Amino acid sequence: MRRLSLSSRLALLFAACTAVVSLFAGVLFSRASEAHFVELDQQLLDGKLIGLRRALHDIQSSESKIRLADELSRQADLSLRITGSDGQRWYDSSTQLPDRLPQTPGLSTLNDGDTDYRVLNAPLFVDKPDSPQLTLLLDITHHQHFLQRMQHLIWLTVGLSALATALLGAWAARSGLRPLRRMSAVARGVSAQSLNARLPEEKMPPELAELAHSFNAMLGRLDDSFQRLSAFSADIAHELRTPLSNLLTHTQVTLTRPRPIEDYREALHSNLEELQWMAQLVNDMLYLAKADHGLLSPKREPLELAREVDLLLEFFAPLAEDAQVTLTREGNAHMEGDRSMLRRALSNLLDNALRFTPAEGEVRVRIVEQAKGLTLSVENSGDGIDGALLPRLFDRFYRADPARQEGSSEHAGLGLAITQSIVRAHGGQIRCESENGWTRFVIELPKGS
């Protein structure tokens, strides 16, 4: 079966609710009307019973018969039957009364063909056990017809109300769901070339404003990811174009004429350097791809960060000496993590700091142990970084130095991206701050990472 639309479901739900409420209200009104008629009939018959008892006080006298006839003539739809204590019928005010009448004391209802009666049984003399019995019959056929017409009207009202509510509910649901249709239209129009489409959040009802905001945020993330993927593909082609062009040109030039064996050896060494750089670039890209898919699994081994940092500073000491840069370390902390991965991340940060620290500058590593984690910062003096560039520093192939926009056999712009992936794999975060002549990369790690 075809699934019902949301508008149809809401319309049917509105119609069902309206029908139930209308039916409930109609039944209550019908019961209340019926109870009201019973109460009126009870009052009427009780009043007539008092008058009949007064008229029949002396049942044998002719004057009693006159008073009885006078009392019955005042109520055209009232009939009377008098029976003795032995059950013998003494008197019927009408020849059309049913033969069998209810014998239970009090008020009851009787149906005789097309006529309905309200029947009241009571003794003529309350204080005599062998008193004759009075049976008063009030014709309530017109009451019953009124109740039947009212019930028919209730059912008609329920049906018409349900139908009207279904139609109005369908219209209201369709109008209310217009923002969803607009959202669906925007979703149908989304493609790689139109990821900039957005829903007007200010025109959405409050119930859909949050959904529209989430939808727009999703489109924004998709747009950003697609732009990054496109830039990443272009950057890969850009980075590989230069070494491939160098390899091709160098090889073609070498093969243009016969050369001594030393020239061929030199050409092969030169090509080997380019190939090694390309291999490293591919390895770095694969490493980042594993990080994107959550495939980096750091080992858990106890580390003393001061010792690890000192070993790295010792390694970079010759380079720092040549560049006339001072290397220092402050603080210590203990944690659990992957030694090789953290060394690679810190090496990238130290290498980056040394390249951008001027002569007579300083590179400092600060380690601060805290209650729930630790903070490790690598900071260097020198020219700061524009605040607008800080969010892009961890993008792949991005270089803040405008002089390094072509492929290089030393730095491809993947170091900070790899560092960020390693830090995140350890459950931490990394950020960059640049102010007052200092550039600082801050790593926050949990102790049990």
Commentary on this structure:
This protein is 53% helix and 18% strand. The chain contains nine helices and twelve strands. It has helices spanning 6-55, 62-73, 141-176, 178-189, 206-254, 261-292, 305-322, 339-355, 415-425, and strands at residues 78-83, 89-92, 106-112, 115-123, 133-139, 301-304, 326-330, 334-337, 362-369, 373-381, 429-435, 438-446. The strands form three sheets. It has a five-stranded antiparallel beta sheet, covered by helices on one side. Strands 7-9-10-12-11 form a five-stranded mixed beta sheet, with helices on one face. Strand 3 and strand 4 form a beta hairpin. It starts with 5 loop residues before the first helix and ends with a strand. The model is unreliable at 402-409 (pLDDT under 50).
Helices and strands in order:
Layout: H1 6-55, H2 62-73, E1 78-83, E2 89-92, E3 106-112, E4 115-123, E5 133-139, H3 141-176, H4 178-189, H5 206-254, H6 261-292, E6 301-304, H7 305-322, E7 326-330, E8 334-337, H8 339-355, E9 362-369, E10 373-381, H9 415-425, E11 429-435, E12 438-446
Parallel strand pairs: 7-9
Antiparallel strand pairs: 1-2, 1-5, 3-4, 4-5, 6-8, 9-10, 10-12, 11-12
Helix pairs in contact: 1-2, 1-3, 5-6, 6-9, 7-8, 8-9
